[in-house]
Amino acid sequence: MRRIGFVESNRSGSGFDALRAARGLGLHVTFFSCGLDRYHATPGGTEVLETCVDEVVACPTHELEPLLEAVKAVDAAKPLDALLSVAEYEVIQAAEAARQLGLPGPDPAAVRIARDKAAQRRRWVERGVPVPEFRVVTTTGQAARAAEEIGFPCVVKAVDETSGAHVVRCTTPDEVAATFTAIRSATTNRRGQARSPEVLVEECLVGFEVSVEVLAEAGAVRVLGVTDKILGGRNRFIELGHSFPTALPDAVRCELESAALAATTAVGFDLGIAHVEIKYTGAGPKLVEINPRPAGDRITELMDHSFGQSTMELLIRQYLGESVGDAGLEPRGGAAIRYLTADPGVVTEVTGLGIAAALPGVREAVVSVAPGGRVDPLRVNEDRVGHVLATAGDAYLAGRIAEAAAQQIVVGTRADASPMVR
User: Fold this and answer.
1) Averaged over 382-405, what is the pLDDT?
2) Based on the number of CB atoms within 10 Å of its own CB, is 149 exposed (0-12), middle (13-18) or buried (19 or more)?
3) Domains plus CATH for the chain?
4) Where are the beta strands (DSSP E) in 108-219?
5) Which of 200, 216, 229, 244 is deepest in the core (most CB within 10 A)?
6) How confident is the model over 270-294, as pLDDT tens digits?
7) In terms of C-beta density within 10 A (0-12 exposed, 13-18 middle, 19 or more buried), how is residue 308 classed?
8) Exposed, middle or buried: residue 98 (CB in 10 Å: 0-12, 13-18, 19+)?
9) Residue 11 has what pLDDT?
10) DSSP class of residue 388?
11) Nearest-5° Cα angle at 363, 362 to 365
């Protein structure tokens, strides 16, 4: 039996799907983690751990040396055939460990660049890839000057977070200073890793956003597809919906694909699936960021519905040393997800789930809160309160079905006297 190691997992789709795909391939799965509580607290997490994981190894996964020690001990007992991570905060360590064990994996140097939003932009500027105007700053004074030079509104963001954390559209110098201070006041990111001293201040792009899902192998990069996205959250950038594949005209889609391929090649990402976010502006495509791992937020599941096969299985086969360049992924239909939000406060009621779930084409209608629970202000993706996922003959129709179903669901709240501060 071949053996595969996973370093943590994301909890929004591709991570759990990768574990299921490994089980489907008949692999022995070792799960390296610094703690399982957050997985058990995620719907479906306990079931995945119990049915898809053969062995759990506890270690500080956010640091290379202790992770490497744990991985080498497992490999010495029974050699691993593959080691990977689809969790944003652990991709660097997993790539480094795989390289030291002589296992297939992306170039760790490329992954390191792709995990740092400032390093991405520096590389893209060098290679002529279109990016928003930006400044990398380390002090409040530098942030203020950068905002004045770039103009308002601008965006201030941490270089080492994900899921919309610490990404704020600022319209005044005071907002810039407050956001910069909030980022720098934390010495670690959300996974306990030492935070970069650098902060980005950049042009607020006006345009619509997509993500381009790409597959790298043997020195070549190909596009798997383009995902249409819906953003909200006032001065935050919260993802409220995705549809795959895109309904955009071919000419626009080709521009976006070309930009994503240039961005991926420029950072040197050379094995696996990457998630490239782009805004299409009046001046054409401009890069938002590249993530050196598969998309979260259930996008890979939308791709699976569209293609009729598991993208995570393809990824695992790559890490096992197989070529998947001729996998022949062609859309056979469309899929869409729409996320639910609610006013901040204590939940008083949840209604309409049954009606939403009964609509033809709806695959899932889920609410993650219950009466007595609390809804936080919409600041990061995790503050959403549920979703509807639908499939149809094309992505546009799937999106309309998901929207119609989502409109049936009401999460009522009452004002909370002591809202969470984050």
Assistant:
1) 97
2) exposed
3) 3-106 (3.40.50.20), 133-203 (3.30.1490.20), 206-333 (3.30.470.20), 335-414 (3.30.470.20)
4) 134-137, 154-158, 167-170, 199-203, 207-217
5) 244
6) 999 999 999 999 999 999 999 999 9
7) exposed
8) buried
9) 85
10) E
11) 75
